[in-house]
Structure formats: C-alpha cells, structure tokens
Amino acid sequence: MTADPNVDTVTGREDEVLSLLNEAYDDWGDEEYFRWKYDQYPEYDPEEHTFAVVDDELAAFRRVFRKELVYEGESVTTFVLGDTAVAPDHQGQGLYSNLHERTTNYCEDVGAEATITYNNADNVTFKANRKRGWEFSVLPLRLYVHSYETVLSQYAEMALPDGTAIDPVVDRIGDRFVLEVDGRRVPIASIFGTERTPDSLRLEVSASPRAVARFVEAASNGQIARTIPTAARLFASGDLSLTGGGNRAPSNGRADGVDVLEPDAVSDEERETMVELHRLSRAGAPTFRRDLHDVEHLLSYPGADVLVARQDSDIVGFAVVGPYENDGVLEARVLDLVAPSETIYRRLVTRIERHTATAGYDLLVMMSDRDPGAEWASIERQTIMWNRCGDSRSVPADRLFPPTIGMYDVL
C-alpha cells in the first residue's frame, strides 16, 4: 500500500463491502439489511457517500450518511460518519486516519454544518476525536431483559473477562447458587459458562427484574466494583432475597388501544400522520428530520412491526420495532417511538414490552430521554460526537446539539 492510497467509491464492490463489515463487526448484517441501510436510504448516492481504499482488494471502507437536523423550522445539513472498517491485512498503515481526513474534508467541501459520529466512550476513536476538539453527549440508551440466562451470560463476560479472580470461585460454587428471576431458575454456573455438578446442594437467590437491570447497568457502565453495595441496597429493598419474590411485578401501564401492524397495513394517510406526530412531539428540541421519505424507509426495516396507539380511530402515537441478532442474542430494536404525551408513551412502552416478550426476543433496546421504568437498564457508555465544519455557522451549536435521537438515527 502506498503512503497516499487511492480513495475510490464502492460501486460494483458491494459484496466485498458487506464481507468486510461482517469481518470487522461480528454479525453486522445480511444482504437484505445492507440494501435497506444503503440502497434504500433517502438521498443515498454511492458515488458521493462511500469512500474505499482499494489495493487489488478492498482494504478499507467508510460510509457517510447525509442527515438534516431540524430546529424551530430551520433545517441544516449534517453528515454522520459510519460503517468504517479496515481489512486485517491492511491495518496499521494509517488507512483509518486517511479515510477520516478524506470524509471530514468532504463534509466541509459540500457545506455541511457539522460532522457527526457515534462512539463508545471507551473506544480509541472517541478519545482521538476528543483530542481533535470534538464535543459529545451521552446517548440515552435503555435495555430491557427478556431472556435472563442468554443476556446475563453476555454481560457477565463483558464485566468479568477470562482470567479474573472470580473464575476459580465460579468453578467451585457456581452451580450451587441459582438465580430465580420471574419464575425462571438460572444457575450462576450457566451464566459464566462453567460446568454444573449433578445433584449438588443449591441455594436459590430471588432477583427481581429491577435487580437484573441494576446489574446490567453496572456491567455496561464499567461499574462492576459497585456490585457489592448495589447488592446490599437490593437486599434492603427486597429486590434480592433468599425467600422468593423475584417475579416481575404486574405492569401498571395500560396497553389498550395499541395495535401491532405489518408495515404494509399502514395506509398512506396514516404515514402522513406519523410525519406530523413526529414534528409535534419533537417541537422545541433539535431532532433529525422525519419527512415522508424517512418514514417510508423506517417502516421498511427488515422484519419490522409497527405499534400504533389510537384514540377513537385516530393515530396519537406510534413505535417501530425491528429484529437484530448479535452474538446469539436476538434484540428487538425500538427504531422510533413517537408519543406527544406521557400517557401515550407509557401505553406504547407497555405494549412494546409485552409484544417483544411474546415474539421471543431476548433483549429490548431503545433510545429514550424519558424514563421507561425501573426494569429498564440505563447504559451510559454510548455517545454522539460532533464537530462544526469550516465556517458554516448558520445556526448556533447550542441550538443544534445534542439533538433528540431515536435508534433509527444511530443505525
């Protein structure tokens, strides 16, 4: 690879791009998801919005997404940097930095107001962007666990990687402690992936879904040292006990008047209503545009369901939920949830919880500035980062950032 690599578009190399993305990000997606995210994306131009380094084979790739930020009737153009990958044989050659410079320069050249990216706060890219002067805000990511053994195994691995001091303890007694959550018994050994001893004496610890949410928060937010004081508080509150009581509390939320529809069942008139509801619910806050083309694309997410809240026969709120499988965990992504009032928000959240449980999802993932409830874990590691472009300053930064964001805006 030369010191100044040739940067080209990916036209005709889509299969290579998909292969590289799945190599860089485990389970990035299949061809259907690629077509949805790329070919069907509003205003997508492969000649303008893809950047690739080619050296006989695809060595590195980055995509930029044009997005309009709207606030108080004003709209400004931004570009989101995403889907960046460097092939293993070409890493360590400065290709990532080269693509970063090329794409940020492109955003300035076309007159964008800002460049945006999404990063984990522990990521090297996050730290590098901070050194470059980028600003950031923590995203309101929420998780709701349906399948305790599947999800807790994933978060135990995240919090306690191989070789930690707890490994020999789990090996000795992990099969003798059983976590009972919502009527389901999960041996600690199975969470940490160790073998169980047949017919061993077991101690059952009942944990409420609220307790599970607090432990998921600790693992996700790098606060595993707080596990013991967190457990003490949960025992004091009754969310952890040796005497039962670990079932999920009956929901007090109403879910009546919320229908689950196939996207094709949503009429043209109802889609127009969704555009207007989004405008009303986001009034007074910066947000990414949702015109009819955006809503059409949102509803076309592979495998999506549409949850529609009605009053009489009128739509008063909606949510779009779609599947995503990652490392054996089937996630339900709440791509967008639009609710002009707290009452409608609660109805939709309750219906989403029930629908995704019935549909067999392991985990429910959502972006929400509102608090969806104590059984949801709040993850504070994902961020939105932004950098103003050149001399483009038609709208002050504090009127644009941070914007109100849905999961659809992050994909």
From the 3D coordinates, which CATH architecture of the largest domain would you assign? 3-Layer(aba) Sandwich
Could you give me the name of the CATH homologous superfamily of the largest domain? Answer: Gcn5-related N-acetyltransferase (GNAT)
First-last Cα distance? 31 Å
Number of DSSP helices? Answer: 15
Question: What is the CATH domain class of the largest domain?
Answer: Alpha Beta
Q: Using only CA atoms, what is the Rg?
A: 23 Å
Coarse morphology: globular
Roughly how much helix do the residues carry, as a percent range? Answer: 25-40%
Count of distinct structural domains: 3
CATH topology of the largest domain: Aminopeptidase
What about the largest sheet? 8 strands, mixed
What do you see in this structure?
The protein is an alpha+beta fold. The chain has three domains: 7-139, Gcn5-related N-acetyltransferase (GNAT) (Aminopeptidase, 3-Layer(aba) Sandwich), CATH 3.40.630; 143-241, no CATH class; 258-368, Aminopeptidase. Helices cover 34% and strands 29% of the residues. The chain is built from 15 helices and 19 strands. The strands form three sheets. Strands 1, 2, 3, 4, 5, 6, 13 and 19 form an eight-stranded mixed sheet that branches. The protein has a seven-stranded mixed sheet with strand order 12-14-15-16-17-7-18, with helices on both faces. A four-stranded mixed sheet has the order 9-8-10-11. α6 (148-159) runs parallel beside α9 (209-220) and α9 runs antiparallel to α10. The longest helix is centred in the last third of the chain and has 17 residues, at 342-358. The two termini are 31 Å apart. The relative contact order is 0.15.
